[in-house]
UniProtKB/TrEMBL annotation:
<feature type="binding site">
    <location>
        <begin position="69"/>
        <end position="70"/>
    </location>
    <ligand>
        <name>NAD(+)</name>
    </ligand>
</feature>
<dbReference type="GO" id="GO:0051287">
    <property type="term" value="F:NAD binding"/>
</dbReference>
<dbReference type="InterPro" id="IPR002504">
    <property type="entry name" value="NADK"/>
</dbReference>
<keyword id="KW-0520">NAD</keyword>
<dbReference type="GO" id="GO:0019674">
    <property type="term" value="P:NAD+ metabolic process"/>
</dbReference>
<comment type="similarity">
    <text>Belongs to the NAD kinase family.</text>
</comment>
<comment type="function">
    <text>Involved in the regulation of the intracellular balance of NAD and NADP, and is a key enzyme in the biosynthesis of NADP. Catalyzes specifically the phosphorylation on 2'-hydroxyl of the adenosine moiety of NAD to yield NADP.</text>
</comment>
<dbReference type="InterPro" id="IPR017438">
    <property type="entry name" value="ATP-NAD_kinase_N"/>
</dbReference>
<keyword id="KW-0521">NADP</keyword>
<dbReference type="Pfam" id="PF20143">
    <property type="entry name" value="NAD_kinase_C"/>
</dbReference>
<dbReference type="GO" id="GO:0003951">
    <property type="term" value="F:NAD+ kinase activity"/>
</dbReference>
<dbReference type="Pfam" id="PF01513">
    <property type="entry name" value="NAD_kinase"/>
</dbReference>
<dbReference type="GO" id="GO:0046872">
    <property type="term" value="F:metal ion binding"/>
</dbReference>
<keyword id="KW-0418">Kinase</keyword>
<keyword id="KW-0808">Transferase</keyword>
<feature type="binding site">
    <location>
        <position position="243"/>
    </location>
    <ligand>
        <name>NAD(+)</name>
    </ligand>
</feature>
<dbReference type="InterPro" id="IPR017437">
    <property type="entry name" value="ATP-NAD_kinase_PpnK-typ_C"/>
</dbReference>
Amino acid sequence: MKDVRNMYNIGVVVNKTKDVNLTTTKRLIEFLLNKGCNVFINEDSLEIKGVSQEDVFKKSDFIVVLGGDGTILRVARMQIPYNKPILGINFGNLGFITEAEKDGMFDAIEKLLSGNFTIEKRMMLKADIYRDEKIEKTLFCLNDICITKGAISRIIKLDTFIGSTHVETYRGDGLIVSTPTGSTAYSLSAGGPIVYPELEVIIVTPICPHSLNSRSIVLGSQQELQVRVLDENEGVFLTTDGQFGLKLRGGDKVFISKSEHMAQFVRVYNRNFFDVLQKKLKEFST
């Protein structure tokens, strides 16, 4: 573990819909300043001068995120060029990825500043989208990449390959390609397996397939999945982590593989994954 005694550059990212009027954010900044930290935040209405979003990541040693899992997913993609560890404080509902609840925020940060933490790395996925044999876009995700039909579309057909080997032509509402972290998200709702988050595998789960033989498959992290859109139907979309969308056309090819980038999470509590899983699934079902 690195010596953190002189590592007091803290970036703060807040979901302003979760922290109305930035009440808790202001308390956090005051706490960090009193601890001798340099604080970077992309917000000018606080006691410190705001900086660009790029500088929040570039100048910080750690990123403290105030929000739910959705905010964490967004920040995990944003930090990719900078490789900064994230400490998530749950202001949302489930909080599978966040480390501490809102009422335990200061205790968690005390542990971080005293060096009482570990870093957990999570696999991410990369999607290269090709159109007319030219790359159209490259996207990244921590949870999942979904290729789905639009709201009023008919079923879509997706031809899938592992390398050059044809796997199946999926017919249905779409396909979810997820990381182990994302196995407890949309993939689970679609019948996919729960996968221990520290493993490095790729989970492929069809959405409402029109075949009883279509089931989830688990690939090794070194394999590449190719998905070809067979339909000329205009209502086919690719989304990353349920947050960023891109419209696909018939003939588009999507190459999905393990990203060279990892998400890093600060862990200050020795929480058991299965205890968290059971707790969160129980909360979700009530």
